[in-house]
């Protein structure tokens, strides 16, 4: 009998830890220390609903939290959506007493729809451009509006310079907005989308990643994908690399910063019976 192939996807990356889905089961791991923790919770089909947060307790110790957001339409008012939150710190799941009800709009799902953790809050992007924010420590939730985004285009929620960032992209221009501490959005950069017109014919393109210093855009054609990098300091585009069609790398991009910190709840291979 041929053994089943393990299906492994990266769901999140935060402060040197990665959140994995292995055959639909969650796993938190540090690739450097090779310590990990399996969480017995099946998330088939709900990958983009899982938020991953890592906090630095002191200079040498980290703690992680995983938050599962669920949404449901209000029976009494079909024009409203209510969100609930389940939290896991490595031992078990607990349902937060916090709920938030707002105008009906589904969470944005699929590629480039991963939640973002910054300044203590997890953020989920909705299809109408608004953002659900939840603090795993205080268990407070709020809705962040983004009224500037009303034109059709591609959206990417990310972080840059330690600020929540929302990128709105069209065939003509890529606009980078950052959320200020007063709750107002400001336009950080307006980038001419030159690579779309240089890469014809295209099957599809999308903004993949942003970190405040560079922006990655993927152009997909029949022969594969080309990754273009825009340097915000030099104000220039260049080709970063390519991905052939046979390569199974059609996934989200993640920023990974290695860490040797001790993580509460992670185990090494000798103390785990899962491997």
UniProtKB/TrEMBL annotation:
Ranges of residues in domain F-box associated beta-propeller type: 13-171
Protein name, per record: (thale cress) hypothetical protein
Alphabetical list of InterPro entries matching this protein: F-box-assoc_dom_typ1, Gal_Oxase/kelch_b-propeller, SCF_F-box_component
Annotated signal peptide: none
Organism: Arabidopsis thaliana
Any Pfam family: FBA_1
